[in-house]
Amino acid sequence: xxxxxxxxxxxVIVGVIVLSAVFSAREEPVEQxxxxxxxxxxxxGYSPAVPAAARPPxxxxxxxxEPEKKPEKPEPAPVSEIEKxxxxxxxxxxxxxxxxxxxxxxKFEARAVLTRLLLDVRNETARKPVKEALDKLNxxxxxxPMRTPDSVEHIVRxxxxxxxxxxTYKTSVGLIQRINRKSSDVVRKGERLKxxxxxxxxxxxxxxxxxxxxxxxxxxxxxxxxxxxxDKTPEGTFEIEKKVKNPSWTDPxxxxxxxxGDPRNIIGTHWIGFKETGQxxxxxxxGTKDPSTIGKAVSNGCIRLRNGQVxxxxxMLSAGDKVTIRE
Length: 327
Prior knowledge:
Helix content is 32%, strand content 19%. The chain is an alpha+beta fold.
């Protein structure tokens, strides 16, 4: 063969090889790699449902130094989602605020804060420091001649006596004496007497065996009590109608009237009777000849106190004052 023939044969052979490689490449399937869900998330948030082949090519990342970010503060939660502070924490803050008022000389204002706090607290251990603070305040605000916003001053005039003064101010001789620390009922011309103004009220909690006295809604004092057996003490609001010192007592079983001083008379030194209602009659507050019954449910339905304490209550309460009894 001459050189021209050899060149033609070589070109044909090369063409065959190239065509064979092209057809071979078309017949082999191309493996499609599907990104995982986590990879899709990283890829700028593309949806996994979009085929990878349809996506635009990912631009090459250019390295750059990101500025250091400070941790962001969380957005404040809506008011409705914010948990209220535990009640004990709130009460602690109230108590501290009241003590600051006392230190600042604002004792009357402190008593108002402590009264609200006392009514809010049910636990006896938590109530104790509040009650002690109130009792200490009231030694000055109530049971002393110290002038307060809920008192007036009466200057004794010629011819005055404690009974007339008590009637004028709708209070009792005993309370005027207690407040002004008088050991007798004698008054002198020009003497200045502190008289409490406003209405007393009583709140009784049977389950706690407790009677609390208020003046114009402010705490005055508190006494332990005895109540009726078998839940005989009624609940509701009652009105003071009658007060009797050294009372007689009618035995409900026999109907016999037993005079004061008779060992069979169980109601002690004072009787504070409630006004009868359509449902309840014969109920009231009284003393006892047996102090061991205080804190127990043993009476026929009345509220009983120790004799010395019912005498104090007797001096504070007047006809028309309200007594609320709760479970």
